[in-house]
Structures are given as C-alpha cells and as structure tokens.
Design a protein that fits this description.
- The chain has seven helices and 16 strands.
- The chain has 283 residues and is of the alpha/beta class.
- It folds into two domains: 2-197, Flavodoxin domain (Rossmann fold); 205-282.
- Strands 4, 5, 6, 7, 8, 9 and 10 form a seven-stranded mixed sheet that branches. A five-stranded antiparallel sheet has the order 12-13-14-15-16. It has a two-stranded antiparallel sheet with strand order 1-11.
- The chain starts with a strand and ends with a strand.
- Bound molecules: flavin mononucleotide.
- Flavin mononucleotide binds next to helix 2, helix 3, strand 6 and strand 8.
- Flavin mononucleotide is lined by residues 42-48, 75, 78-79, 82, 112-116, 141-146, 171.
Length: 283
C-alpha cells in the first residue's frame, strides 16, 4: 500500500489565489479558489452526517434538498410510497434551492441510495437544475451499495457536467466515515495531506473454506444478501486485509417471488482482531 503526499491532483479545484512568480517579467496569478457547494438529500440523517463532514473539512457552503411532501414515514411506508411513485412515473417536487448554483464551480451531491440509484428528491433536483460545466462529486450512503449504479444514472442525467470520482459508505459504517472522507478529499486533491492509496488486488482465486467463512461472517447478518462466495482477490490495507469476493446470489426461501440477481462483487474488510465487515456490494 502506498502513502502519497497530495500534490494537488485536481489543481484547478483546490488552490487559493496566490501570486506565483514571473514569466517574461509579468507576474502570474493563479485563478481564484473555486467555490464549492455541498448539496444533499437525507431522509434519516445518515447522508446529512457525511455532507456535514465534507462541508466542514472543506469550509464549503452546504444546503439540503427538501421535498415539498417529505418522506416522513417509516422504512416500509417509504418503500411503498416510492414504489407507487415509480409505477406512476411520478418524481415528487422539491423546494427551490436557496443557493445560487451559478455561483459555484464544484457541487458535492449527496444522497441515500434508493432502489439502486439516487433517492427521488435528487432526481427532482436534477430535473430542475442544470449542472452543465460544473465539476460534480457524488457521495452517497446505502444499506449495501449503489455508488456505481447511481453515478451511471447521474452521468446520463447530467451529460454536460464533469463527474469526478465519488464516495459511498454503508449506513452501518458511520464510525469509519470521517477517516474515509478525509482520505477521499486528500486523494481527490481537495485538501492537502498524506493519504493512503491501496495497492491493486492480487489475482483472484477460488475461495478456500477459510475465505468462504470470512464471506459468510461478513454478510451473514445482512438480510438483503443471500449469496455464496465463488472466488476472491485480496490486498493489504492499513487496518489489515481487504477481500474482493465474487459471489452468486442464491434463491431465497423467504422471498420466493424474488429471482436470484446473478453475480455480485462484495468488498470485505478484516481489521486485526475484528470480525469481518462488508463495506460495499456492486451488483
Ligand atoms: C425506499 C428505500 C430504498 C432503499 N434502497 C436501497 C438500495 O437499493 N440499496 C441499498 O444499499 N440501500 C437502500 N436503502 C437504504 C438507504 O440507502 C440507507 O439507509 C441510507 O443510508 C439512508 O440515508 P439517509 O439517512 O440519508 O436517508 C433504501 C432505503 C429506503 C428508505
């Protein structure tokens, strides 16, 4: 694993205005620091805590996307309302933003993953807003995963925006979030400092019994995953080891109407002395 001193990778988004020497006797001045807005939707506060962490670390403005008719029911009521809206093709309206989007160069856009993509209030915001020409940094929280699938939809919804790498975290891993956000912001060049760039995974191999047990221990308590690990690749991380399992979905006795979804990738961390924890699922 490599520790890298940030050299301001995204130079255009991270530097304050400073005079920087002369060329042909003329003083060169760096462009002013870009203006950053952290914009998020959060139903139950998990994404809000990530948004607050990012805004605090960057000293950026922050605003919540607010539904005109809030999703204030419990989990099951929200699922049901959402399914009805999806069936009818309804995207519930959101309040107009207080911030003037035109004044910002970079928008961090945060949301909970619902049904594999950004929650409907973010779809409503994207329908109203134009992020063309802006740098957009997606971040999300989820039960098991959805950064990749939601970002793919975001790219379709905002083809003229410049999408930068995003950050996603399970709601069950909020204790790990501040350190991960710090590393993410450094690795993306938004703040200065050393960050950890994990090495590539080694070549994958069929799972051993011990590795299958690690997979089962990591996903065993999570009701939405019923899968069997087939192969795995590993790499060292600061906490211990990371496993990238390829697993196949199994038919579910408790949900006979739900067909197996095929293969999935499951990232599992085993920190020294700790039980295995899955960090995300990519379906
Ligand atoms: C209607 C609904 C659909 C959801 N769909 C998914 C999903 O497809 N995948 C997933 O990993 N988590 C899913 N979740 C879990 C949320 O993404 C997760 O709890 C999130 O951290 C909540 O963030 P919030 O507190 O900011 O609202 C869903 C939750 C709800 C309410």
């Amino acid at each position: 694993m490599k520790k890298i001193k940030t050299m301001m990778v995204v130079a255009t988004v991270a530097l304050a205005a400073v005079s920087c020497g002369t060329k042909n006797g003329t003083a060169e001045v760096e462009p002013p620091a870009p203006k950053v807005l952290v914009l998020y939707y959060s139903q139950t506060g998990v994404t809000k805590s990530v948004a607050t962490e990012i805004a605090t670390r960057l000293g950026a403005d922050i605003e919540e996307i607010v539904s005109v008719e809030p999703y204030d029911g419990d989990f099951q009521a929200t699922i049901e309302r959402c399914m009805q809206e999806r069936e009818k093709g309804v995207v519930p309206a959101v309040e107009p933003l207080k911030a003037d989007l035109a004044a910002y160069d970079v928008v961090f856009l945060g949301y909970p993953v619902w049904f594999g993509t950004y929650a409907p209030p973010v779809a409503a915001f994207l329908g109203d807003a134009d992020l063309s020409g802006k740098k957009v940094v997606p971040f999300c929280t989820f039960g098991s995963g959805g950064l990749e699938s939601s970002v793919a939809e975001l790219a379709q919804a905002e083809p003229q925006a410049e999408l930068l790498p995003g950050y996603g975290v399970r709601a069950a891993r909020m204790d790990a979030m501040p350190k991960e956000v710090d590393n993410f912001l450094k690795a993306s060049g938004f703040i200065e400092g050393e960050y950890v760039q994990p090495e590539a995974f080694a070549e994958s191999h069929p799972v051993s019994e011990a590795e299958a047990a690690i997979f089962d221990a990591a996903v065993g308590d999570y009701p939405m995953i019923n899968a069997k690990a087939k192969s795995v690749a590993t790499r060292a991380i600061p906490e211990g080891m990371e496993y990238l399992f390829t697993a196949v979905d199994l038919p579910r006795k408790d949900r006979p109407n739900m067909p197996p979804a095929g293969e999935m990738e499951v990232y599992v961390t085993v920190a020294e002395g700790q039980v295995p924890v899955f960090t995300r699922v990519v379906r």
